[in-house]
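Our preliminary data section would be incomplete without showing what the modeling component actually yields. Below, a chain of 774 amino acids is followed by its predicted structure, encoded as tokens that our downstream tools consume directly.
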Amino acid sequence: MRPSRRPRPTIGERVARQLGWLPNLWRLWVLPYGAWLMNGLVQVFSKFRGNTEKEEEKVVVDGGVWSVMLKCLIHVAPLCATIVLAAINLKGFFIGNNYLGSTEDTIQSLDQLLLQITAKLYELLIVASLTTIVLDVLRRELLTESEGLPFGFVLAPFQFQDLTYWLSPDFWYSQYALRSRAKRYKIVLLLATSTTIAIFAGPSSALLMLPQTFTHWPGGGAHFTMAGGQNSLWPDRLEEFPRWCALTTAEEAEKSCSTGNFEIIAQTLRGWRQQQTLFNIDITDGLVRRHMNVIFPDFGKGDTWAIAPHLATCLYSEILTNMWHQAIFGASEASSEMQPFFKYRYRKYTGTTATIQAQIPIVRVNCREPVPQTFQYWYTVQPEIGETKAYLQPVAPARISESYVNSSRIATVWVPPPADDPRWNSSAYLNIQFPSSGGSTEDTVMTCSVDARWASGNIVGSLLGFWNGIQYYNASVWYEPTKKEYPGHGYAFPAFDQVSFRKVHLDSSWLQGVVPQLGSQFASYTTLSSALEVLGFAAGAESFSDQQGPSNRNVVEAAVAALIADGMSQTGYAKNGGGNLEDMRDVLNGEGVPTSPHDDDLLLSGRLDLPLLKKITTKPSDPATTQLRWDIFIGGLGYSANSVAYYLALTVVFAHALLALVHTAWSLGRRQTSGAWASQSDMLALAINSRPTAELAGTAGGIKMLSRLGLPVRIRDVHARPLSEYASSQSSGAPLVTRSEHSSGTDYNSLQLLVGKDGWLYKRNGLVELNGKY
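Predicted structure:
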């Protein structure tokens, strides 16, 4: 008979088999050697504290500067930690992508754990320092003041860290029993401050000790100068496109200027899917990689608009980014700000970004559904940004030329808007003729309104910390578009006063340069016509007749907006780099860029002033220049007090530091210190060695008459005066005699807690002699 197969062990059985050595480790190693270690520690501490059968005489109050300084050493460690943490959080300290050292996950987790343990240790040091301060103040009240201290305050140095102490009868009856208003305010304020610091010391220490993860840590910056003024870089009227882009073939356009981007725009828009309200078009023209944002309206209503980064500004950012990479490795090591460790930290970057505040092009387009070709067309009057009122308005006839006989191609014609109507926001109008289809012999025309503007915004370069060509530039205005659904309209733009807009007039000659003619046979067949054919609109009106009609109309709007925004983004490029791409590549490769170590230091510290590059010169007819600011930000771990929570945490640790310094100065001024009754065990021993008092009779099982908590308590040398004198002072409270220091040859301990008249502390059996009150 074939033997049965053994069942496969479960996960629990396999784990138990793998960890079977743990019980033996515990039994053979941990228990015996652990007990031996603990016994050894006990022996060492016993040797240090004394291990005699009889308690030795102790010095309750010691004098001298050195004794006071030794006692105040408990404040040194937390004060030093406070100084360091405050300095790195207030000034800022960048660590890098990881903690320094090994980048393995285990080591990084261990570093994080050690910082958490250090934060807890810092909290414990603060609480120990506060306990010393409170104990010194209350112990002085017990030893020297004639009024003494209320009974409920005797254990306050060991209870103030707990918030429930403030709700207990011990606190409320004790503070009420203090006769002196000044003393009441002093003690209550001390306890309140110490409790607050002790409660918030934990979260404050963790907040200040553990680094944050930053995505925008300042990594350097510079001012740079561009050739041309505002009218050259961001003109209000675009009249003529650079003549080397007014070409006859798409192949030549791709080689010389960015009008060749129409194919990239068309191919990218083919990937758009319905309900995508935000779409990115990635443009790579041999210089920099740019992201153009296209925003579609919801449900096919309203405008479609495009935002593009300014090309010439991106080129300067690329130059400064290359300089920044070199500066990390080439900064002067002699500079105190640019130490080798500093440079090493900046090499450990992630998510590096750069920003430039500049003008960016924004274009919104609204197209109507195609209609049969007539002698008059209607255009949408685009409302002011922030308004919702839109209506239709006819303008002068602007038909496609009747000489255009090839009805199988898409034709485009730009129409200037009327200049005498102040309500007219559109910068240009566009007629798009679609060929006849479906047996119809009549072409259809789509009319579009174009509103082009300059807006104040940021040009953001992302992933600049890498050298493998994945860097790209984006543009964003200084607001996030609010998406609202107005009745009958889909305009979703912010109020006009939220953004600094400037209207732009687009001349027909400039628009013809943006979308130049392709071929020489038909003047109306342009790069826009080719892009629309790539998008699948060669079928004409049939493309807009089904359920996808509104979405297809939005695609046409996106293509028009993207092409115009891309053309506007090229303004100023001719003045800042030359007439073709090859000239600008020379500039990007370092021609005329300063590379001295001093410039590297200035760039990393954000103080570089980059003049106009040698390869870029101004013309006598237009000598104006424009200065902009470039800043680079890196991501990683760092310290920085950048929120209210950090300032509150610093307030907590600064309050402790102030208390510690005042306590040190107070102790040095008195030149006296004491280490007696520093624990609850010491106070318990003092109570056990106490004689019972009449007013505390019947309280062995607890105190029900809460007024007893307000009885004044003192510590006095009972042999300085007859004990009967204290016992007979029933009018001021029966004596709570708590035996303290053992004195040979006496029946009771010399120091006891008393309630009654004042006493004197003399040098008896090793105690310090004081001339008068302590």
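The longest strand covers residues 444-462. Residues 229-623 form one domain. Preliminary results of this kind motivate Aim 1 of the renewal.
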